[in-house]
Specification:
By secondary structure, the protein is an alpha/beta fold. 55% of the residues lie in helices and 10% in strands. The chain has ten helices and five strands. Bound molecules: cytidine-5'-diphosphate (CDP). The site of cytidine-5'-diphosphate has 16 residues, from helix 2, helix 4 and helix 9.
Length: 215
């Protein structure tokens, strides 16, 4: 089981996907769960601050709802971080994530609280970061590619607001687990970041196997 956490547009999704391909593991982008809850809550006409309404949307969420391209928009990222502050929403999404994480053969999960709350016993943990400016640039390019027209300054503003909200909330705040390896991708290409991530996971695997053998 590999846990990949980090802030918006740090490269954690790309790294999780690459690790999944390298090690032959299924990957769950847990951000999509919160994006879906945000979008469904809004579509139902409920307030994002209504914890009960958002938790009810989370309780009936199914895997096939995660393919909706509407979840990838800039607006959905904002809705996600607003419903993600609610403890009941997070609780309702726990079982889905645990089931995915515990499947035979292992899995990769990426998010904000995988190494701290969802899978604190994960043998391999990464915390992926980059400067807000570089993350905003990446997200801006990604949104342009999706056909969303938005100013760079607004994307940077989104990123700073989301970092503050995700890191400052009471329920499972975004933070590096003490045993997570820090991977700063600010100056790294995708190839270099994926390679660094592979080395972190391989080192964790050696440690884990040695600990198992010593048991
Ligand atoms: O791709 P990006 O990093 O912008 O966003 P995401 O990973 O799809 O997550 C969207 C939002 O969902 C985050 O800003 C968090 O508020 C929330 N989230 C969370 O609270 N816990 C997770 N495990 C994953 C996402």
């Amino acid at each position: 089981m590999i846990a990949v956490d980090g802030p918006a547009a740090s490269g954690k999704g790309t790294i999780a996907t690459r690790l999944g391909a390298m090690f032959g593991l299924p990957v769950l982008d847990t951000g999509l769960l919160y994006r879906a809850v945000g979008v469904l809550t809004q579509r139902a006409g409920d307030s994002l601050d209504d914890e009960g309404a958002a938790a009810a949307a989370a309780a009936i969420l199914t895997a096939d709802q995660l393919d909706d391209p509407a979840l990838r928009t800039r607006a959905a990222g904002e809705l996600a971080s607003r419903v993600a502050v609610h403890r009941r929403v997070r609780d309702a999404l726990l079982e889905f994530q645990h089931t995915f994480a515990r499947q035979d053969g292992g899995a990769v999960l990426d998010g904000r609280d995988i190494g701290t709350v969802i899978c604190p016993d994960a043998p391999a943990k990464l915390y992926v970061t980059a400067t807000p400016q570089v993350r905003a640039e990446r997200r801006w390019k990604q949104l342009q590619g999706q056909g969303e027209t938005v100013a760079y300054g607004d994307v940077l503003e989104d990123i700073r607001r989301r970092d503050a909200r995700d890191g400052g909330r009471d329920a499972a705040p975004m933070t590096r687990a003490p045993d997570a390896q820090l991977l700063d991708t600010t100056d790294l290409t995708i190839e270099a970041a994926a390679d660094a991530a592979r080395r972190i996971v391989e080192a964790a695997r050696v440690r884990w196997e040695a600990a198992k053998a010593a048991d």
